[in-house]
C-alpha cells in the first residue's frame, strides 16, 4: 500500500523503520548526522552484500552480532531486535547503506526490507517474537538506504508486491514499515 506522509524522526522509536532516499537527500543525511552525538550510526558496505551470505556477514561484522548468529533471515531479525555489545547501550541506532542500487536489484531485496521492518518494529516497540511486550524499554532502530540511479516509483512498486509492508512517499523518498504496526 502506498500513501503520502509528511515527516519522520530517526531518533525516535516511531515509524517508518526503513527510509530509502536518493544519495543527495540532505534532509535524510542531516537526520543521520544529528543522531551522531548520542546515538549510534553503523555504515554497511553494499558491495559486500551482493548475495545473502555476504549480507549476513556484513551485518554480523558491523553490528557485532554474537557468535551464535545463524546467518539466516530470522537470525538477522533476532540479532537486530536485541543488539548486543558495549557499543550499543540501548541508544538510538541507524544502519546506513550507501550506494544501495545494486542491492535493490537483488531478488531478496523485498524480503530483506520486510525483515528489517520486522526487527525494527520489535526493537522500537519493545515486542518479542510473539508481539508481546518485553520488560526492556524500546530503543530506536532505523535503516537508511541511499541510491544514485533508481526511481523511487520502481522501488515502491517492487516493495508493494509484499502485503506486509506499508510504503509512503515523502518528497522523493520512500518511508517503509510493517503493515502490522499501522
From TrEMBL:
Residues 42-122 form the Barstar (barnase inhibitor) domain. Gene3D superfamilies: Barstar-like. It comes from the Bacteria. SUPFAM superfamilies: Barstar-related. Pfam families: Barstar. InterPro entries: Barstar, Barstar-like_sf. Belongs to the barstar family. This is Barstar (barnase inhibitor) domain-containing protein. It comes from Actinoplanes cyaneus. The lineage of its organism: Bacteria, Bacillati, Actinomycetota, Actinomycetes, Micromonosporales.
